[in-house]
Amino acid sequence: MSLSEHEIPLDLLQWKEHLQIKSSDGKHFIFDPIRKKYYILQPEEFVRQLIIVWLIQDQKIPRNLIQVEKLFHLHGLKRRFDIVVYNKQMQAYLIVECKSHDVRVSQQVFDQISAYQQAIQAPFLMVSNGQESYIAQMNNEIKRFEFYSEIPKWQL
Hints:
Layout: E1 21-24, E2 27-32, E3 37-40, H1 43-58, E4 66-74, E5 77-86, E6 92-98, H2 107-120, E7 124-128, E8 133-139, E9 144-147
Parallel strand pairs: 6-7
Antiparallel strand pairs: 1-2, 2-3, 4-5, 5-6, 7-8, 8-9
């Protein structure tokens, strides 16, 4: 079974019109509604902001339950997650790993996010490069991902 069989249908580009992009001194910047400031518009940041808009607008997740690019420690090393969604009890619920559109979603990406999952203990994982998106839940009993074929109903 290949990874592509688990891809969920998610057209993130439909949320592009909700992004706030500006130019200054020949550089492009994109507004992050969670961190409440502009960041240099790079491909991974573009995907991250599309996912944030999708989480807020489509999935109806409150802004105060979303954290972006926070530092944490994993095996004594400093790491930074892209997005974590918390439940109403402020427990990590969904970890999102964003990749640039030119980075294929691979087993290596899932290895990265599964390591983050061990530290953060969120039951749901999402990986997206803006074109391919995957959502999985870690089954701790069998130590494997169970992939979703569609977007689950979040129980925050």
